[in-house]
Design goal:
The chain has 297 residues and is of the alpha/beta class. It is built from 13 helices and 7 strands. Bound molecules: S-adenosylmethionine. S-adenosylmethionine (SAM) binds next to helix 2 and strand 2. S-adenosylmethionine binds next to helix 2 and strand 2.
């Protein structure tokens, strides 16, 4: 297995600072990915801080698990959705919880996972490969109007109707099974973008990925439920990667503010130039944080 030690997590310094990591305590990484944030949290909470790491991608858990072996019994891994944090923690309260939403480089870079329109692979896009329903099933089965609505809503794509029509025509000839075939259908249907380097299939792929993984379903409810698992003074940090996700986080945070929680970020933090030079994928990241107020004595 290739080492993930060189992988640099998004907004790492900001995350550690806003989580207020310190020795001891129980820390939750709801989206382990390659374990970069988790490793940094475990280092900063030595010698006895514990971390529970969640991911719904079994492969991510294996990779992160291998990276976190040096921390031994301080780590517990759960093949589960972060929406299950309350049930999985039981009565324990956390000092800090991190949700770094979205796709990992592991998923994007592996053609077989079908997330990238730049790599030929099966049109899969499932984060949890044991779950039912691939992106290919959506593309080949949904009605044209449903596809158009999906691409419009989750991709914020202005040419959603044209793209949906092109998809339906193409699949009449032959089912759409690969990433590159779908990317080509969309490229032909949508006018060329004026943004340099922007592939016309970007938004359609985003929409399909969100729907395949139901990424926005219940996000707004999952945040207050996770926040309720914090001990007093505990922190919740959420990193979102597209505007729909960030909007849900912002609204959930606003409704918690003043009700036992205080916002630590009025506006979301964005990566600086130096980080973007090293990691262009961090481009759309937006970090928000809140704190559970200390209980009155
Ligand atoms: C951006 S990556 C996390 C990267 C990680 N912070 C690191 O440092 O390597 C997001 C991860 O969250 C996982 N994920 C996305 N939605 C999830 C959910 N609802 N429950 C659990 N894991 C989820 C994905 O499978 C992916 O591995």
């Amino acid at each position: 297995m290739e080492s993930d030690a060189g992988h640099v997590p998004v907004l790492l310094e900001e995350t550690l600072e806003l989580l207020a990591v310190s020795p001891g305590g129980l820390w939750v990484d709801g989206t382990l990915g390659l374990g970069g944030h988790a490793e940094a949290v475990l280092r900063a909470t030595a010698p006895d801080g514990r971390l529970v790491g969640f991911d719904r991608d079994q492969e991510a858990l294996e990779r992160a698990g291998a990276r976190l072996v040096p921390f031994g019994a301080r780590v517990r891994l759960e093949h589960a959705d972060y929406r299950e944090i309350p049930q999985r923690l039981g009565d324990e309260l956390a000092s800090g919880i991190l949700l770094d939403l979205g796709v990992s480089s592991l998923q994007l870079d592996d053609a077989e996972r079908g997330f990238s329109f730049q790599r030929e692979g099966p049109l899969d896009m499932r984060m949890d490969r044991s779950a039912r329903g691939t992106a290919a099933e959506l593309v080949n089965r949904m009605r044209e109007s449903e596809l158009a609505d999906l691409i419009h809503e989750y991709g914020e794509e202005p040419f959603s109707r044209r793209i949906a029509r092109a998809i339906v025509r193409a699949r009449e000839a032959e089912p759409i099974e690969t990433t590159t075939r779908l990317a080509e259908i969309v490229r032909r249907a949508a006018p060329r973008s004026r943004r340099p380097g922007f592939h016309p299939a970007t938004r359609t792929f985003q929409a399909l990925r969100i729907r395949t993984n139901r990424e926005l379903d219940g996000l707004g409810e999952a945040i207050p439920r996770a926040a309720a698992c914090l001990r007093s003074g505990g922190r919740l940090v959420v990193i979102a990667f597209h505007s729909l996700e960030d909007r849900a986080v912002k609204q959930a945070f606003r409704s918690l503010a003043g009700c036992g929680f205080s916002l630590l970020t009025r506006k979301p933090l964005r990566p600086g130039e130096a980080e973007l030079r090293k990691n262009p994928r961090a481009r759309s990241a937006r970090l928000r944080a809140l704190r559970r107020e200390e209980a009155a004595a």
